[in-house]
Amino acid sequence: MALFERPPLDTLAPARDRWTPLYLEWGRLEVDDSAIKWLGSDGLVCPIPVATVSAVILGPGTTVTHAAIKAAAQCNCPIFWMGEEGLRFYAFGVTPNHDNSMARVHAAAWASTHDRNEVARRMFRHRFPHVPTEGVSIKQLRGMEGKRVKEIYSQLGEQYGVTWKGRNYNPSNWNLADNINRALSAATASHYALIASVVCSMGFIPQLGFVHQAGTLPFVYDAADLYKHETAWPAAFEAIAVNPQDDGTLVRKLFKQRVEDTRMLRRCPDDLKALFAGLDDAPAPEMHPLQPRAEA
Q1: Contact at 8 Å (CB) between 16 and 270?
Q2: How far is it, in rounded angstroms, from Cα 195 to Cα 259?
Q3: How far is CA 208 from CA 84, 197, 204, 274, in A?
Q4: pLDDT at 212
Q5: Mean pLDDT of the residues in the chain
């Protein structure tokens, strides 16, 4: 008899309706009494509703059984391994999505130069709807995005009264960064985990990015950029304004609150689908004067 009974496909909650990821550290995740159960080193024992959470994040000091991984996969619940307090992202377990339609649409758009540029433009227009992007290449979009991002950082610094000297930190020497840069990194790490859970549970391909190309999860970085300005960044600036010595606890609390206030989890699945909608019907953009012909 199976330890965990696979739930019917039609009973699984879609990504938009799931809870935010659960972060666990110092304990064991296993299957017991036909359910996934968390056994904390502090004595806490509680069931984990993997069919209703968007992801399970395993921090330091955690172990997980084969049966628990199998049960999470059957419920379309990705598993992530991250560093202490979620400040480092190490790996994730690929969820065997029940439908490969999104992966096929994603791969087809990525493989077409025209469609790849169009998806990148749609991502930019999602954040800056009043900025014309027709005929602009991906390289030019990156430059426009960098300028806009710097403006948003400065505006948030003025809004919350936080001294802002620019995005500057060394991953190998965390203590050299100032408080606001550490807070931004903490908020961004949580943001990536949350977006990755949506991307994976919907069946997209994290490795195929449209604006980002480097790293292991470029499409996750692309999707995360759609919402950073309304969730992770304001949470970081507000946390430092309230407590300049915050160790990340307040940052994550405010980040979670902003995710709920902006209904990001509910909007994200539809927003990601819209990036690929009707690509075959999209007219070819007019050539931008600065665009190299090779990228047209």
Answers
A1: yes
A2: 11
A3: 28, 16, 9, 17
A4: 92
A5: 85
Specify whether the CB–CB gap between 89 and 55 falls below 8 A. Answer: no
The mean pLDDT value for 166-192 works out to 84
Query: By C-alpha distance, which of 296, 109, 141 is closest to 212?
Result: 141
Closest listed residue to residue 36, CA positions, set 58, 16, 19, 51? 51
- The structure's pTM equals 0.78
Strands 35-40 and 79-82: unpaired
Cβ atoms within 10 A of the Cβ of 237, count? Answer: 25
Nearest-CA neighbor of 123 among 55, 19, 218?
Answer: 218
d(CA 145, CA 124): 7
Three-state secondary structure along the chain? CCCCCCCCHHHCCCHHHCECCEEECCEEEEEECCEEEEEECCCCEEECCCCCECCEEECCCEEECHHHHHHHHHCCCCEEEECHHHCCEEEEECCCCCCCHHHHHHHHHHHCHHHHHHHHHHHHHHHCCCCCCCCCCHHHHHHHHHHHHHHHHHHHHHHHCCCCCCCCCECCEHHHCCHHHHHHHHHHHHHHHHHHHHHHHHCCCCCCCCCCCCCCCHHHHHHHHCCHHHCHHHHHHHHHHHCCCCCCHHHHHHHHHHHHHCCHHHHHHHHHHHHHCCHHHCCCCCCCCCCCHHHC
State the distance between the two ends of the chain, measured CA to CA, in whole angstroms. Answer: 58
Residue 290: pLDDT band with limits 50, 70, 90: very low
